[in-house]
Sequence to fold (568 residues):
Amino acid sequence: MVNPFVDEIVLQVSKATEMSCGDVRALIETPPKPEMGDYALPCFALSKIFRKAPHLIAEELCAQIAMGDLIDEVRPAGPYLNFFVPKANLVGETLSAILHHGADYGRGDQGVGKTIVIDFSHPNIAKPFGIHHLRSTVIGNALRNIYRALGYEVVGVNHLGDWGSQFAKLILAWNYWGEGELTADITIQKLLELYVRINEEIEDNPKLEQEARDWFRRLEDGDEEAVRMWQVCVDVSFKEFDRVYDMLDIGFESIAGESFYQNKMPGTLDRLRAKGLLTESEGATIVDLEKWDMPPLIALRSDDATLYGTRDLAALEYRWETYRFEKLLYVVDVAQSLYFRQLFQVLELMEYDWREKCAHVQFGRLRFKDGSGASTRRGNVVFLEDVLNRAIELTRKIIADKNPDLPNGEQIARDVGIGAIIFADLDSKRTRDIVFDWDEILNFNGETGPYLQYTHARYCSVLRRYDGILPPRDVDFALLNEPEAIEVVKCLARFPGQIQKAADEYEPSVVTTLMIELCTVANRFYNAHQVISEQADLTTARVALVYAIKTVLASGLSLLGMKAPEQM
Ligand code: ARG
Fold:
């Protein structure tokens, strides 16, 4: 579903310039002030193609645009060409679409028959689900919802860090300091302490390093004792991860951790070898990437133990064979960007033509304003569960303060507290570093999750006061002619296009930004006009607008992975 006004502009500009519709569409903007127009075409990019100053292009194009039901005025303004659309049509078209499609408004079908694989969340077994995995989890989940809304089949994969030398270190540590058998009643906290302690000991005593390597060897060879202890670590971790995923209400289509690729690696190594890509270096087997100015990807260690990268190569091949994806997205920290460049370069050397379908969707760091750090080695990890619980606790206090009689208050405290964390994570462009400040995140009047949810609840309560049928029928859209109403409609009309944009740019913040804008213009409308009045027709029309606002806010919240309580 798209915006017919933008479609018309795109079509006409594309005809006049012989640019593709997609290229034109990517250029269309919304001017900062309504007086300037409803949509704008900046002509800077065109000036490169036509070798003319942008303002001349704007003028020439202007003469070629035909007026009609979808465009009623076009004006060049410096380097921009501004379009005005007939407001009554804009209101009518947009609101009828929303009333008609409800929660499906904004969805598309361009993804039908195509699969997107999203590798996200992927915490590490035997370590706590730390705040550093929050970003991947929340961004990955939002992208999953966004692609699904566009009709794609989405496979969310949790590539758990469940294999590697750290387990050997843990097993070693348990053998030194543990009491009796390692069983599943051990806590993650205890495992973490053991891990920290063994790392410290290894630093002082390199002999232990070798012992750990021996254990890893045994683990990779399927030694019964090693595998049993590893399995305990996995089980204990799952208990904790599941609690966090339940709180966030996030699931996966496939939970295939690194260990899943254990038996697939020999094939991958064979193919690398057959392509002549493997060389020996200081006892290790590597793929040399010097030509591309990158360090080598280590395929096998000197003791033949396999590595993270080899498992990822096996996973890449497996995923291609299994899903024939349109895209494979890795939602992983910016710290691994060199690693993904290495990985993708190896795909190129393997001459896999699907290499272009793989992308590293990176994101910046997250830290707390109060200075909480996150390094497992030293043990000062911030547990995500604690963060979520703190958010719920603070929200509970706010509710007790502001609205103590709120029915279902406990559930709402959870929805809002967790929503605040999700929103704060998604709110800025994903590549930026973000700083969590508790006061800001939970500020009901700021650009926050609670504000968005509160605005949604407010319009739900307006609708509860209306005693007619919802969604309203026989609406006279022409009555919605005030500038405040039109601004709301324009914002609503952008929703489908912004979902598309969020998908194209792997950028959930496109949705958060639109949602905050919608709250602003909706509240401006609400403060200026009485929705329910004695005038029946006007009431119906305004209720229709409020209904549309509520519908799109709820859809936006759900794309972001947040709940939309109807009362707050
Ligand atoms: N578990 C890894 C970490 O915490 C991230 C895994 C990312 N996914 C992948 N296929 N490499 O750093």
Summary: The radius of gyration is 28 Å. The longest helix spans residues 224-248. The chain has three domains: 4-85, 115-262+313-368, 384-560. Residues 119, 122, 124, 159, 161, 312, 330, 332 surround arginine (CB under 6 Å).
